Amino acid sequence: MKDKEGNFGCSLQELRSLMELRREESCAMIKEKYGDVNGLCSLLGTSPVNGLDGTVEDINRRQEEYGQNILPLQKAKTFLQLVWKALNDVTLIILQVAAIISLALSFYSPPSADRQHCGKAAGGVVEDSEAEAGWIEGAAILLSVVCVVLVTAFNDWSKEKQFRGLQSRIDQEQKFTVVRAGHIVVGDIAQVKYGDLLPTDGVLIQGNDLKIDESSLTGESDHVKKSVDKDPMLLSGTHVMEGSGKMLVTAVGVNSQTGIIFALLAAGEADDSDDAGEEDDSDDAGEEDDSDDAGEEEDKQKKEQMDNKGQNDDDVVMDMQPLNEDGQPKKKKNLSTKTKSVLQLKLNKLTMQIGKAGLLMSSLTVLILITRFLIDTFWVQGVPWSSDCVPIYVQFLVKFLIIGVTVLVVAVPEGLPLAVTISLAYSVKKMMKDNNLVRHLDACETMGNATAICSDKTGTLTMNRMTVVQAFITGRYYKGLPRLKDIPASAIDLLTTGIGVNCAYTSKILAPEKECGLPSQIGNKTECALLGFSLKLDRDYQAIRDKIPEESLFKVYTFNSERKSMSTVLYNPDGSYRMFSKGASEILLLKCCMILASSGEAIPFRTRKREEIMKQVIEPMASQGLRTICLAYKDFPAADGEPNWEDEEDILSNLTCIAVVGIEDPVRPEVPEAIRKCQQAGITVRMVTGDNISTARAIACKCGILNPGEDFLCMDGKEFNRLIRNSQGEIEQGLIDKIWPNLRVLARSSPTDKYNLVKGIIDSTVLKKRQVVAVTGDGTNDGPALKKADVGFAMGIAGTDVAKEASDIILTDDNFSSIVQAVKWGRNVYDSISKFLQFQLTVNVVAVIVAFTGACITQDSPLKAVQMLWVNLIMDTFASLALATEQPTDALLLRKPYGRDKPLISHTMMKNIVGHAIYQLTVIFTLIYHGEILLNIASGRNAPLHAPPSVHYTIVFNTFVLMQIFNEINARKIHGERNVFEGIFKNTIFCVILLGTLLAQILIVQVGGSPFSCVALNWQQWLICGCLGLGSLLWGQVVSSIPSCCCPKVLKPATRAEK
């Protein structure tokens, strides 16, 4: 209701105050101010049945008055902030300080000092003009640092941009149903159903057994029962765990409960210092004052909620809350193996070891350089100490320090995190095309190490397009669909009315979108099969629903994992009630005491008849892979008074069986081949389903999970629970260990059974290797298992928002074969990092040894600081891009998973690293110490301070870089393959980077001049350098011929992951 000026009868502040109330307080406030929910609807100008009229003018007016349902993006870090973060790297800071000191001292020349008297290395040889060019090295180092910083900042910026794009894609995956199509506004009537994550605040208009998980807001794990007369408040960010209903939207965007929390969070971050870690931005937000009108107690509660939200408070910009709102913090409380992937554990260990070794080598280099200088100058040459020479000695000290720092820069594998990031980001982007929407980057790599997959059946292994193909009705078993004339009219009416009202009203069959196409199934696919069955019996379920609208349903017992059934109660005009039920046939049949006879009349249902139907109807249906559903009803006469609807055991007893139907859900044609590939790759596939054991076994045989002649276990949830518990009813790991290695099918399982199985496999020590478990899930109650798993897959089509939130990867096509693609990409990430590691460690070993040996023997590093920074850029950024963007191949599925304890550096990799290092060191040292003789050029050894670049050392530098470029091609293969060129032209990025690096090297040598300590080479010298570089490829064939077992496991302790 609006006034003449178009204002609504309820202000924004009034609605916000209303949504702060809970339970009885909220009911009292609604009754006192509005009379009931209908009164509130009237003030907001909406219909509780039809919702808003949806005119553009009205929607715009509501958005102006009450806001839009958008939570603003957390401000992204600017490029300058990322530059500042990159500048804070310790080694770069040391390098910058040393370069600035070098730069300052190069301009200083003591007027009274005779450089000749300060030692042989200090001067005399260098002309004044060349000495004046001493600033170039310091400036070049600073320029190199700037390049490194800009590249690092750009990579961080690209990563953040891509992750925001990924989050946007995740947000778009979430859907919520409103009566009026379009963006949600205050006054909309929204349908609430099982599995939804509520995007707005609202007041319940009508509810059917509605239970909400409000733990994301309150921290309380118990589900809250919602009803119009006791607790009608529905809050954004909470999860619908059971039931369905309709709500009036009363607060959206920043005015909803989640929005208020985000506003507090933003206020906290505004006062936080910028040096707080990226992932800790929200930690201090809870200390800010609330700017809203909520009470102090509510403020405190909300601030606690923000602390609980941890790191998942960014990247929100859709009509839905982000999927990773509260799932990840809980996940991080799990085992450490969940917080850190297999590769992360190994890389952390390796990086620490290499970093310590690099620090030791750089310290030794500086120490030896200083010691040699002191001995040579003051002892061998006998130069007396002079204060006039101090600036020159300081220059030498700075020069030595720069050499030491550059050794450290080259030795420390800071490119590893970059390689991991690039590889994961590239894989994530490509995986989207393979129907894998990755929510947590490390899940991509972890999937490559998966040893077990616990998969749902419906929709994942099967097509999730269900149709009724067999039926038992009025005492007769139909192997096909029954004809209308074969069934009494009374039975048809009971059957079709029960189907129409006892299926969720959101489930429906729509006309085919294309001519000759199949009808579209919207909603629960089992219910759609029943609705389709009703249509084939010439009864329009929609006509039944129009006659009995959802608002008129007296009570609904929604389906859940405990009931295994759904029941709907109708109130008749004569005061009696009729309840329709549907559910698992073997469970619901036990609750039936009557059954429809061939005449359509109900007759007693004896135990003997029940057993006969079980053996002659249900088991044959199940053995064909059909899902069996029993349809029943029960009348409650008015004379007996109103039943106690809370006593479900009594309500769901003494039913009358109408029919048992067999629903077919065909196995996806690509699934058997996908499962065969998994088995070939060393991954065990287990089916965990809610169907009965006969149906599950039949589908498992069709899929290839069970094969003839194999002695594997199939059991139902009841038997599984009995076997894993001791006499006190407690679960024992030892008992689970006796079952899970041979278990292949778990039928009639509850979400708890699924969780216990996953936890049991992960915690097991019965096998040598710790199992890495992937799990698929689509239901709300699958959340615990999805979180517990190393990798949780949620269904993008059939999955609930809660399941998606708990998952690591969303299968956008609900197809098992997409999981196989995830395995390939995961293994490809692992291999890509290994390729990069093989390449980088080879460069590390050679560069460090050359610099260290040069310092010891010639009192200088043959590779100058700027040159080593260029080499560092090649092996960090460029090699990361080149080697981390290889495409996966089917060959990745021909090997077993690496496992958590396998060394990151394999025997073959170690052989390649050592073999190529030997070749490169031999070439470099030959050029350094005999190059002037072999090439007939002037020696560049023992050059004084500020000496001009030499042809000798330019050839050394050029040859070294060319060997790395050609060795990058060798690094493409890490399993001993001889053809290192295989598939090289399929990776455009690799080819472009390789060619670009080569062109850049030519420019550096030919026109780089003093800043790069280079002299232009002639074509004969380039030919020599090129041939020596090309020799890396030929030498690679020699290395490949050496058996890997000949290489000792010297790096094994340093590369093992911590258990």
Automatic annotation (TrEMBL):
Pfam families reported for this sequence: Cation_ATPase, Cation_ATPase_C, Cation_ATPase_N, E1-E2_ATPase, Hydrolase_3
Highest taxon of source: Eukaryota
UniProt keyword list: ATP-binding, Calcium, Calcium transport, Calmodulin-binding, Cell membrane, Ion transport, Magnesium, Membrane, Metal-binding, Nucleotide-binding, Phosphoprotein, Translocase, Transmembrane, Transmembrane helix, Transport
GO BP of this protein: regulation of cytosolic calcium ion concentration
InterPro entries associated with the record: ATPase_P-typ_cation-transptr_C (IPR006068), ATPase_P-typ_cation-transptr_N (IPR004014), ATPase_P-typ_cyto_dom_N (IPR023299), ATPase_P-typ_P_site (IPR018303), ATPase_P-typ_TM_dom_sf (IPR023298), ATPase_P-typ_transduc_dom_A_sf (IPR008250), ATPase_P-type_domA (IPR059000), HAD-like_sf (IPR036412)
Major location (coarse): membrane
GO cellular component assignments: plasma membrane
Enzyme nomenclature, EC number: 7.2.2.10
Transmembrane segments: 86-108, 135-154, 359-380, 400-426, 917-938, 950-967, 988-1007, 1019-1039
Domain Cation-transporting P-type ATPase N-terminal as annotated: residue spans: 31-107
Statement: the UniProt record of this protein carries the keyword Magnesium: yes
Broad enzyme group: translocase
Composition bias, Acidic residues: 270-298
Job description of the protein: Catalyzes the hydrolysis of ATP coupled with the transport of calcium.
Protein name (database record): Calcium-transporting ATPase
Native organism: Dissostichus eleginoides (Patagonian toothfish)
